[in-house]
Amino acid sequence: MVLTYGNYTVQFIIVGFSDSAELRIPLFLFFLCVYILTVLGNLVLILLICFSNTLYRPMYFFLCNLSSLDIVYTTVTSPKLISIFTTNNGIISLTECITQLFFFVSFWNTEYFLLTVMSYDRYLAICRPLHYTLIMSRKACTVAVAGTWLGGMLGSIAPTTTTFMATYRASNELNHFFCDIKVLEKVAISDTTSIRNAILLHGLLCVTTSFIFTLISYIYIISTILKIQSRAGKYKAFSTCASHLSVVTTFYILLFDLYFRPKATVSLKEGKVLTVLYVYIIPLLNPVVYSFRNKDVKEAMKKVFKKVVPK
Q: Which of 28, 109, 122, 167 could form a disulfide with 190 if both were Cys (CB 3.0 to 4.6 A apart)?
């Protein structure tokens, strides 16, 4: 489908990293390797959780969904970026651009919501252990996960629709490496008030709400851990949420640094680097963090390795 305004067709040119022509091949290899490792790493973790009896718990059910999310999240932008390096052609139609934006924002929202649900799961495990199995039943976990995916889709409708309804020139340069909503807002030639309002509403309903609920969960978690008398008990309690806490902390630090710092203090190159960390590196590191900082996952990996590799 090609969208036309009057007698002209709207298209965008994703600039990517064209200002670093000498780094084209190294950047191509870097993003290709990151994408392949992200898919393989998260896929291994998914298979490990699905086929290991010791990981049949709510926490790992959520982790399995997080890994699935990381795969589709990076797939929204990585193939197009890699193709730009190989063909040196960053042309993308408005329909393709808005489709990419819709799925990017949808999976972005889902990540907020899923990390929030995982925070609540850790809160119940540490602060209300006697009620944990009752509250976190299989049905409750399934409904919670389905809600995060559905909520992510619904939360992307307003930003995507307002961006789609804006007017653009026939050819527009996007000085970025994917169709980011703020970049699209800059190149629109019509009034962008509706886009800014949609971004603000999205930030309040999705980002801020998720952050507040996650923060409240960890305030209760830390308060409960500090009340534990023995050092071993504190360490055991903290170890159950250490992996998730490290992921959440990195996620929100990069998010707020990228989108909530004054624009004047963020250079174009710095913004691209932060976006690369946020969009590509976090999904790559998630399976690493949850594997190396989680005793149950490491034990499950050892068992699988022993079965696969004969003595």
A: 167
Enumerate helices (H) and strands (E) in the chain, giving the number of each. Answer: 15, 5
Q: In angstroms, what CA-CA distances link 38 with 44, 58, 128, 165, 283?
A: 10, 23, 34, 34, 6
What 3-state DSSP class applies to 63?
helix
The string of pLDDT tens digits covering residues 243-255 is 788 888 888 887 7
The string of pLDDT tens digits covering residues 11-45 is 888 887 766 667 788 888 999 999 999 999 999 88
Instruction: Provide the residue range defining the domain that includes 287.
Output: 4-308
| CB-facing half-sphere around the CA of 229: CA atoms within 13 A | 0
Give CA–CA dist 144/280, Å, rounded.
26
Query: Measured between alpha carbons, how far is 174 from 263 in angstroms, rounded to an integer?
Result: 17
Q: Which distant-in-sequence residues (6+ apart) come within 8 Å of 101 by Cβ?
A: 159, 160, 163, 179, 180, 181, 184
Q: Domain containing 210 — which CATH number?
A: 1.20.1070.10
* CA atoms of 162 and 197, how far apart (whole Å): 9
What pTM was estimated for this model as a whole? 0.88
Query: Taking Cα atoms as reference points, which of 275, 250, 246, 279 lies closest to residue 35?
Result: 279
Number of domains, the chain? 1
At residue 64, φ and ψ (nearest 5 deg) are -60, -40
Structure tokens at 62: 């959520």
- Rounded CA gap, 111 and 73, in Å? 9
DSSP letter (8 states) at residue 4: E
Q: List 132's β-bridge partners, or say none.
A: none
The answer to whether 222 touches 128, Cβ cutoff 8 Å, is no
